[in-house]
Every structure is written in C-alpha cells, then in structure tokens.
Amino acid sequence: MDKISLDKEIILNATEEVIRRFGPDKANITDVAKLLKVSHAAIYRYYNGKAALFNAVTDRWLAQLHAPSNDILKEDSPADAKLSKLLESFVEAKHRSAINDPEMFANYIKLAQSSMEVIEKSKEEGIKRIEEIIVQGITEGIFFSESPYKEARSVYLATSVFIHPNSFEDSDRKQNIESVINLLIRGLKNSNR
C-alpha cells in the first residue's frame, strides 16, 4: 500500500465521501481505508471504531451546517430581529441539507437515533446561541426574562419540530415556522407574564 500522511481531517473527508457514496448503513471503516489506500488499522489509530468515526463526521457536519449562525450573532441588529433570523437559519439548515446532501442528512438521522452525544452537544450549542440573543434583548429592554437559559431552551424545543424530516413536505411549513417564531418573540417581549 502507498504511504499516505494521515490526519483526522483527511480521514473525516474520506469518511464523508464514503457515506455519500454508499450511504450511512453500508459505509464502513474498510471502505474509508480503501479510499485512502491504507489499512483499516491505520484508521483505528485515530478513531476507536465506526461509531467514534461517524460521531466525529456528524459533529463536524453539524458545525459546518450551523456556521452561519455565528455570523448572525455578530450582526449589529436588535435582538428580536436577530433571534428571528437565527431560528429561521436553524430550521432551514437541516431542510437544505436533506435536499442538497441527503446521505449526510441520513447519517445525522441515524446518529440521532443511536447516539445522543453529538446531537446533545449540537442542541446545547443552539440553546446557548439563543440565550445569547435573549440576554442581548434583555439588555436592550426588548425581552423580559428571569431565566434566559430556560427561555432559550423552550424556544429551541418549540422550533425543533421544524428540523424533523416529517415537517419538510408540509405545504404550510414556511408559514408555520414564521407563526411560531413570531409567537415566541411576542412571548419574550411580554413583560406581564
């Protein structure tokens, strides 16, 4: 076998290619090793099995998927507008991925059903982003909350229904997303709760 300089990034790129080629159910470490022209033992030096490798791929994929939300957080705009944009970004990112990158989305769904570690990390990061905007809104006098983290978690849970594939075919999906986001923002603005 040809000598190749391996690192985690090279292995993750190859794993994504294998998942896209064979799907998450059929892809395996041997396929990744063949693509890289190394032994499967070489892969095990970096990842302790298929689950660890697929977790790492999904973790990286989720980070890339939600990268635009980092830009939204940096915007110089009022918290209510920023929160609306962030929530729309969250729900549309998964929808776009299901259409444009179905194999990686299938890998995400499979992982969500079998291993919650990566999914919980991504969920917590989403909640923290929402919390950051709620805190900004409190500072601006737009939002009223005694517990920004609890409010952020509730907002995340209320919109998470729209990242489920069952919602993707709903002809009223965009209207429903807008209605829920508007309702949540009005609730955060209500000082008489």
UniProtKB/TrEMBL annotation:
SUPFAM superfamilies: Homeodomain-like, Tetracyclin repressor-like, C-terminal domain
Secretion signal span: none
Known DNA-binding region: 28-47
Domain HTH tetR-type: 5-65
Gene Ontology BP annotations: regulation of DNA-templated transcription
Keywords: DNA-binding
GO molecular function, one term: DNA binding
InterPro entries: Homeodomain-like_sf, HTH-type_TetR-like_transc_reg, HTH_TetR, Tet_transcr_reg_TetR-rel_C_sf, TetR_C_27
Xref: PROSITE patterns: HTH_TETR_2 (PS50977)
Official protein name in the record: HTH tetR-type domain-containing protein
Organism: Clostridium folliculivorans
